[in-house]
């Protein structure tokens, strides 16, 4: 099997490269040009055509996207292109070259008012990112009707910098000992990137074997946490004083963040599920540990 992972330098893409490591896989990066990746601009039809015509993959996993709120606000056209145009061009390329496609989407296509959401629940995005993800899904379906579209919640996993995930950013913030106000309204379902990549691989295998997967699938952990609850968990585990961490409604007050988008995954067939479920409570310490600042007695309590 020949596979291409678009967005292989990102959080999910790096896990996906490990999940596809036993087959002939080509990964792409954009600004992060790791030496084993091909640098392409996925908003360029010519770049995609060049890659696919040379690689002739059986299957494509599209992990390209722009999920950073700072970029949505500061460069909305660029963010839109990374989410919508890239999805359309990759799907058109997959269709032209006869490759099966797994496309990654987001729980933000829902408004968060009536969880849990099934694959056929009606989307109603609250913000630009959610609208772009929904438009990307529509473009993928139009260009490549047999693509598998996998919607995901917030991911965590091994990171290259603290700000790469909500979880590691929170850990870093609270370890400074500074006063931090964190949202205690919006519930997230942090799901491990490696577990998610395993689902992507299984979807890819099933598509290559000729299975019809019926369009949209959901994958998500089912334990929900607000950012504030995540911070308390981290503080408790590492013995950090949590009295400078305060509960707020910082995300929810804007009105453009869904409060609870829990994804119902029951319809995902057993054969497409990962062998091992990774529980957030057991997995988060290893992920956040590299981003905690060194011990400062002013904010660390004595652990008996
Ligand atoms: N992480 C989450 O919590 C989460 C949750 C739900 C859904 N998703 C979706 O899952 C997918 C993967 O997310 P992620 O967390 O792995 O994202 P990420 O870490 O931000 O990685 C995004 C990837 O897209 C690449 N990229 C960006 N612009 C590009 C361009 N113009 N041309 C080519 N490549 C480009 C990046 O390359 P460089 O970094 O090299 O520039 C990187 O490899 C995205 O569609 C995202 O919206 C993510």
Short description:
With 304 residues, the chain is of the alpha/beta class. The protein is built from 9 helices and 11 strands.
Describe it:
The chain is an alpha/beta fold and 304 residues long. It has a domain of 188 residues: 3-Layer(aba) Sandwich (Rossmann fold), CATH 3.40.50.720. It is 36% helix and 14% strand. Strands 3-2-1-4-5-6-10 form a seven-stranded parallel β-sheet, sandwiched between helices. Strands 7-9 form a two-stranded parallel sheet. Strands 8-11 form a two-stranded parallel sheet. Strand 5, helix 5 and strand 6 form a beta-alpha-beta unit. The chain is globular. The structure holds NADP nicotinamide-adenine-dinucleotide phosphate.
Give the name of the CATH superfamily of the domain at 2-161 and 191-218: NAD(P)-binding Rossmann-like Domain
Q: Strand share of the residues?
A: 5-15%
Number of strands: 11
What is the typical, i.e. mean, pLDDT?
93
Low-pLDDT segments: 296-304
Write the layout of secondary structure elements.
Layout: E1 2-6, H1 11-19, E2 24-29, E3 38-39, H2 45-55, E4 59-62, H3 69-74, H4 76-96, E5 100-106, H5 128-143, E6 148-152, E7 155-156, H6 166-175, E8 180-183, E9 191-192, H7 193-208, E10 216-218, H8 227-238, E11 245-248, H9 280-288
Parallel strand pairs: 1-2, 1-4, 2-3, 4-5, 5-6, 6-10, 7-9, 8-11
Helix pairs in contact: 1-7, 2-4, 4-5, 6-8, 8-9
The chain binds NADP nicotinamide-adenine-dinucleotide phosphate.
Which features does this protein show?
single chain, alpha/beta, binds NADP nicotinamide-adenine-dinucleotide phosphate, two-stranded parallel ribbon, Rossmann fold, seven-stranded parallel beta sheet, globular, disordered C terminus, 304 residues
């Amino acid at each position: 099997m020949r596979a291409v992972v678009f967005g292989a330098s990102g959080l999910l893409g790096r896990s996906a490269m490990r999940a596809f490591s036993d087959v002939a896989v080509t990964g792409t990066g954009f600004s992060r040009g790791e030496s084993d990746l091909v640098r392409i601009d996925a908003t360029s039809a010519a770049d995609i055509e060049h890659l696919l015509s040379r690689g002739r993959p059986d299957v494509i996993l599209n992990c390209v996207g722009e999920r950073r709120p700072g970029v949505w606000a500061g460069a909305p056209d660029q963010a839109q292109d990374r989410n919508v145009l890239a999805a359309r061009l990759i799907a058109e390329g997959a269709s032209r070259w006869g490759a099966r496609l797994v496309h990654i989407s987001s729980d933000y296509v829902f408004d968060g008012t009536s969880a849990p959401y099934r694959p056929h629940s009606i989307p109603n995005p609250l913000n630009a990112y959610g609208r772009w993800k929904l438009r990307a899904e529509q473009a993928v379906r139009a260009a490549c009707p047999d693509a598998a579209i996998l919607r995901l919640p917030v991911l965590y996993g091994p990171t290259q910098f603290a700000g790469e995930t909500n979880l590691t950013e929170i850990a870093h913030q609270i370890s400074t000992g500074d006063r931090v106000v964190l949202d205690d309204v919006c519930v997230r379902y942090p799901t491990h990137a490696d577990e998610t990549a395993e689902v992507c691989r299984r979807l890819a295998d099933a598509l290559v074997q000729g299975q019809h997967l019926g369009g949209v699938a959901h994958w998500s952990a089912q334990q929900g946490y607000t950012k504030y609850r995540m911070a308390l968990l981290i503080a408790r585990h590492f013995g950090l004083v949590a009295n400078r961490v305060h509960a707020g409604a910082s995300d929810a007050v804007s009105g453009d963040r869904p409060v609870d988008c829990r994804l119902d995954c029951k319809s995902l067939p057993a054969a497409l599920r990962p062998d091992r479920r990774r529980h957030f409570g057991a997995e988060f310490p290893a992920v956040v540990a590299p981003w905690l600042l060194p011990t400062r007695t002013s904010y660390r309590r004595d652990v008996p």
